[in-house]
Amino acid sequence: MAAAVSSLLMITVVSACSDDAPLTTPDGSPVSTVTTRVAEVNIVNADRDLTRTCLTPTAPDAGVTDVNRIVVTDPSLLDAVCALGIGPKVVAVAATTPVPAYLGPQLSSVPAIGARPDAAAVATAAPDIVLTTPQTAATAAAFGDAQMVTIEPGENWQERFQSVADALGRSSSGERLLDEYRAETVKTGRRMDAQHSQVSLVRFTGDSEMIAGTDTFAGQILAEIGVQRPEAQRSPQSFTVTDKNFTDADADLIYVSFQGDRGQAHGEEVLLSDRWLDMGAPTWKRVLAVDDDLWYGSSGLAAAWLVLNDVKESLDGNS
C-alpha cells in the first residue's frame, strides 16, 4: 500500500509540473522566468520594468492652453510624449507599425487605428493635435481641421524631442528635461571615469556581425557620457566584421546585441567560438548583452535614459 501511495504522489507531482500553469512560490507569487544570460554572457537589465519608462508628467508653458487629446501618425514620436509624461493624452496611433515595446503598457494599450483610419475612428479620436512626419502626412490629412504639426526626421533626436515639446506647449519643460539628461551624462562619465574605458559595440545579425558606428543611437550616448571607443571603431558609420578585422571587435568591455531570433542564434555561435573567446574582453569576462531594439532601433529622451541607466549599471560589470 505504501508503494502504491508513493507512486500516486509521484504521478501527481509530475502531472502538476507538466501542465502550462505558471510557476509560483508557496505564497502564490509568480516565479520569475526572465532569461538573464545568453551564451555565458550576462544580459544588462534583463528584468527591466517597462511601467517606469515614462517620466513624471509635465505642465504646459505659462499662458498656454493645454492639449487633451493627441494622435500620432508615426510611433517613433511617442518617445517624446512619454518623456514629457503625458502618454495618457494620446488617444490613438494612426499607423500600421507597432508601438515600441520599451515604452511600456501605458502607450502599447493606446488604440491603433491604422494608416487609413475610417470616419468612425477619426470621430472617436477627435484630437486636439495630430503629430505627424513628412512620411505619414497622408494619414494626418484624414483628421481634417485638427491642428497638425510635422516633425522633421532630419533633426537629431534631441532636436526632435524639443520640437515635439514645443508642439505640445511644453517648450520650457523640454529644455529642462534635456538639461537634466545632459547633466546626468556628464556626471556619470566623471563618476565612472568613462574617459579611461574603451567600449566596443557589436551587433549580431542572422549571418554577420556589425561594429556599430559613433552615429548610432547607442554610439551617441556613449560619446555624451565620455566613454571611449577603440581606434578602429571611431567611424560614424557601422561596418561589417570580417576575417581580416575580427579583432577590431575587442575592447576593455564589449556590449553585444542581437537582431531578432536569427541574430541571437548566430551570436551564440560566435560568442562560444574559440576565436571570440581568445580575445581580451571575453578572456576577462568583460562581455555584456544589451537590448538591440532599445540601443539601436529607438531614438528619443525616454530611450536615452534607459540606455544611460544600462551603462551606469554595467560599465564596471562582468559577464
Automatic annotation (TrEMBL):
What keywords does the record list, in alphabetical order?
Lipoprotein, Signal, Transport
Its subcellular locations are: Cell envelope
Major site of localization recorded for this protein: other
Task: Enumerate the spans annotated as Fe/B12 periplasmic-binding domain.
Answer: 69-319
Recorded hits in Gene3D superfamilies, A to Z, give: Nitrogenase molybdenum iron protein domain
Q: Which family does it belong to?
A: Belongs to the bacterial solute-binding protein 8 family.
**Protein name in the entry:** Putative siderophore-binding lipoprotein YfiY
- Originating species: Gordonia insulae
